[in-house]
Specification:
Elements: H1 15-42, H2 48-58, E1 66-67, E2 70-71, H3 75-86, H4 90-110, H5 113-125, E3 130-133, E4 149-153, E5 156-167, E6 174-181, E7 184-191, E8 197-201, E9 213-223, E10 228-233, H6 236-270, E11 272-273, E12 276-277, H7 282-310, H8 316-340, H9 352-362, H10 369-381
Parallel strand pairs: 3-6
Antiparallel strand pairs: 1-2, 4-5, 5-9, 6-7, 7-10, 8-9, 11-12
Domain Acyl-CoA oxidase/dehydrogenase middle: 131-221
Domain Acyl-CoA dehydrogenase/oxidase N-terminal: 14-127
EC number: 1.3.8.6
């Protein structure tokens, strides 16, 4: 039986969905997997523009959006792409997720026709890169407390503030920045070439190292009136984009968990101790059985939420359920797989500790475990425990 799809979850995929899965898997295995350990070791992506062009040709940027050069696939197809990318590395799925589910979705959903036409076709091909500026040094789980401000000055807007933990921030051409105004929280398209805008790369990360993470500084950045995303009013706008990105995580971490399970099976069959493969020992088989259950339950959860999303029935609490459950499962699988690998598990010759450390970041960003637990608690009881 196939351990990576023990319950034959993928039998419910359409021919088109299978084709997308296989295309992204083949590309990721051939073009990304051979390099990702070196990128992780170096703590960066050496050629983000080249990576973007390749992924643009693959068609994964904004693939769930329609028009403007986007593929217009269904939610399950996008989820499958996230699964196959994160099976290689969480940083690569984040690269695609920030571009498509955050920056492009914000423009597609809330921008003017001129903004969409200017940015989306180039972002879909990877010619232009975007980032999403919501989180701040003192504002993470409570984005409504942001300190970045935008004030009117004649016909212009002037932005001041700092954004933190911004994927692709230092390589982006356009930043979608959320700021507090006298009219509430609004979104702005900020060209990164604008005077007063700077991006500082965050170094010394121990997780998500095959990714570029930055601090954005806005020091009197002056923007014309048409930089405003007119359809985005209030905190619900950026949170709706985050929900799109979280959906990709639900699928992505299932891919990371699958990679760790397969690595553990291969290693335990080849590793001989006491004159027999360690896979033949009861304790090892129990660990593999637990991992097998976690991986396949995570894939079932992802597929079901994807079908709900395609039917227009997925609520944000469903996405919270998926992120909470699947990230937790993936962390268990990665840690167990690392243990099966013994001392070899801490090296980059094997993917397991890289995935294990990456999942520490994935568990934190776009909603911590505590935030999603409270979201589910509110959905179940009808009572809000956030404040």
């Amino acid at each position: 039986m196939n351990p990576q799809d023990f319950l034959d979850v993928d039998r419910d995929l359409s021919d088109e969905e299978r084709a997308i899965r296989d295309t992204v898997r083949d590309y990721s295995t051939a073009e990304l997997l051979p390099h990702v350990a070196d990128w992780y070791d170096a703590g960066t992506i050496p050629d983000p523009r080249g990576l973007a062009r390749g992924l643009g040709k693959l068609g994964v940027f904004g693939m769930h959006l329609s028009g403007y050069g986007c593929a217009g696939t269904n939610a399950v197809s996008y989820g499958l792409a996230c699964r196959e990318l994160e099976a290689v590395d969480s940083g690569l799925r984040s690269f695609v997720s920030v571009q498509g589910s955050l920056a492009m979705t914000a423009i597609h959903r809330y921008g003017t026709e001129e903004q969409k036409s200017e940015w989306l076709p180039r972002m879909a091909t990877g010619e232009a890169l975007g980032c999403f500026g919501l989180t701040e040094p003192d504002s993470g789980s409570d984005p409504g407390s942001m300190r970045t401000r935008a004030r009117r000055d004649g016909g212009d807007w002037v932005l001041d503030g700092t954004k933190m933990w911004i994927t692709n921030g230092s390589v982006a051409d356009c930043a979608v920045v959320w700021a507090a105004t006298d009219e509430g929280i609004r979104g702005f398209l900020v060209p990164t070439s604008a005077p007063g805008f700077s991006a500082n790369i965050i170094h010394k990360k121990l997780s998500l190292r095959a990714s570029i993470t930055s601090e954005l500084v806005l020091d009197g950045v002056r923007l014309p009136a048409d930089a405003l995303l007119p359809g985005a009013q209030g905190l619900k706008a950026p949170l709706s984009c985050l929900s799109e990105a979280r959906y990709g995580i639900v699928w992505g971490v299932a891919g990371a968990a699958r990679a760790c399970l397969l690595a553990a099976i291969d290693y335990s069959r080849a590793r001989v101790q006491f004159d027999r493969p360690i896979a033949s020992f009861q304790l090892t088989q129990r660990k593999i059985a637990d991992m097998l259950v976690d991986v396949n339950q995570a894939m079932l959860t992802a597929l079901h939420i994807g079908r709900l999303k395609d039917a227009g029935q997925a609520q944000h609490a469903h996405i919270s359920f998926g992120k909470l459950a699947n990230v937790r499962a993936a962390q268990r699988v990665a840690a167990t797989s690392r243990g099966i690998h013994g001392a070899n598990g801490i090296t980059l010759e094997y993917p397991v500790m890289r995935h294990m450390l990456n999942l520490e970041t994935v568990a934190t960003y776009e909603g911590t475990e505590e935030v999603h637990a409270l979201t589910l608690g509110r959905a179940a009881t009808g009572l809000d425990a956030f404040r």
